[in-house]
Amino acid sequence: MITVAGFNTAIDRFIQVDALTPGEVHRVREEKIYPGGKGVHVAQTIAELGERVRLIGLVDQAHEAFITRQLNARGALFHGVAIEGQLRQCLALQEPDGRITEILAQGPQLNPIEQDALLREFGRGVEDSELMILSGSLPRGFADSLYAGLVEYAHGLGKRCLVDASGEALRHAVDAKPLLVKPNRDEISRLVGYPVIDLHAAEKAVTALRERGVTMPVVSLGEQGAVAADETGMWHAQLASTQVRNAVGSGDCFLAGMAVAILRKLPLDEALRLAVACGVANAESEETGFAKRGHVDALLPRVTVRRL
Ligand SMILES: Nc1ncnc2c1ncn2[C@@H]1O[C@H](COP(=O)(O)OP(=O)(O)OP(=O)(O)O)[C@@H](O)[C@H]1O
Ligand SMILES: [Mg+2]
Fold first, then answer.
1. Which of 151, 162, 259, 291 could bridge 176 with an S-S bond, Cβ 3.0-4.6 Å?
2. Do the Cβ atoms of 71 and 36 come closer than 8 Å?
């Protein structure tokens, strides 16, 4: 079992409109609503790859059935922690030329009872899980050191953790020495204090993370693939695609692939191959944060993996 602590569940609303003009009334051409947030993306992709997974995240009364239904349909369990406020709402407005304007709400401020309920659910999840994934922004009300504390708690029970976070939450998490962190270019640049925009800089950053005690650091580089290292060495994996439609959530699907590979005890080069195939499968489809198994399987042999 893999447990995903992706607390900040969201409702993603995707709306097609005619060209946007500030101050004008806009009529909706088409509207789609999805359960969103990094936790949902990671959990549904792990389930799609065939492993048992549960997601622990916030839920409000209005959306409980909606989120549970989608995750269950995709084979993932949802352990929603009910809050009084509203889930985070993310609005994407797409114009006919494809341009997307996003409006992201702040998300709920949790009271202490709600915080405790989430942490208790995390504690229960650790018990029967082989891997814990901590992914996404922290709901307002939690300290930046929350992920670090949860990693230490899981380590105390002999469980391994994968962390996908940014800013101070990532900095603290690295100090707790999880098995894996997966910053993207922006996130790693902020962490190490120099721009990580090419392979050379990514190698340097991955080495720095190893020295800080992360067993298997990964830096993802969008279309340039990803660099990762463990005790067997450092690898680069990439698949150039000419079919990219929506790369948002590719990092989440990449992380799902890494987690499944680690659970299956694949060596790092094979883990990276699966992760990159998942990232690209997501990028080549319209939906945010979901990689279909058949698509991933078709991409796997096309991923190039080489030792650095
Ligand atoms: N345009 C692209 N072309 C080819 N591969 C891509 C592209 N975008 C993403 N990928 C693949 O997906 C992986 C993760 O992408 P990226 O580094 O953009 O993650 P991210 O910024 O964390 O994404 P998010 O946080 O939106 O999920 C990359 O390492 C790469 O393998
Ligand atoms: Mg990301």
1. 151
2. no
Q: Which protein residues are within 6 Å of ligand 1, measured from CB?
A: 184, 220-223, 225-226, 239, 241, 244, 247-252, 254, 276, 279-280, 283
Q: Tens digit of pLDDT for each residue in 26-63?
A: 999 999 999 999 999 999 999 999 999 999 999 999 99
CA atoms within 13 Å, Cβ hemisphere of 210: 17
d(CA 231, CA 215): 8
The closest ligand to the CA of 184 turns out to be 1
Closest protein CA for atom 19 of ligand 1: 251
Domains of the chain with CATH codes: 1-21+29-178 (3.40.1190.20)
- Distance, CA of 99 to CA of 177 (rounded, Å): 40
Strand partners, 81: 58
Provide CB contacts within 8 A for 156, sequence distance 6+. Answer: none
CA neighbor of 100 nearest in space, from 294, 291, 286: 286
pLDDT of 95-115, one tens digit each? 999 888 989 998 999 999 999
